[in-house]
Amino acid sequence: MRFLDTIDISASGLTAQRLRMDTIANNIANVETTRVQNGRGPYRRQVVVFEARKTQLPEQLASRNFENILEEKIGNMGSGVRVKEIRSVNENEQPFRRVYDPSHPDADEEGYVNYPNINIVEEMINMISATRAYEANAKVIEASKSMAMRALDIGR
Question: How much is the pTM?
Fold first, then answer.
């Protein structure tokens, strides 16, 4: 693994976790939104789905050395993470919160208002998790930079 590969892998994690934090912040901001712009009901909670990012460099495709064969047999470790999709959690997975408020403009004929399927505690836990993952990726970049500087010092 090359030095810059480590930084590239961690940078993909930073980007993915930043998008995850933005999505969580959007969910928290819309916790009381009972009507979205197109009028199809309350805001739906969004989640970010990640997947492994696997890239093969041109030299990996052309050469059949021991490292490439070993990676084929035991599975490539990947080269970071990417966002596969941002999906809305539907009503079947997590139902809307129903509150009795007949005076609300979005109340149904029974007087109930559908609020988004967002749990603030769950969103805060997800935000802490995303923050910790972001910090871990930043520390990996810092450690890689430190190791490269020490290697340069040894070469002097």
Answer: 0.78
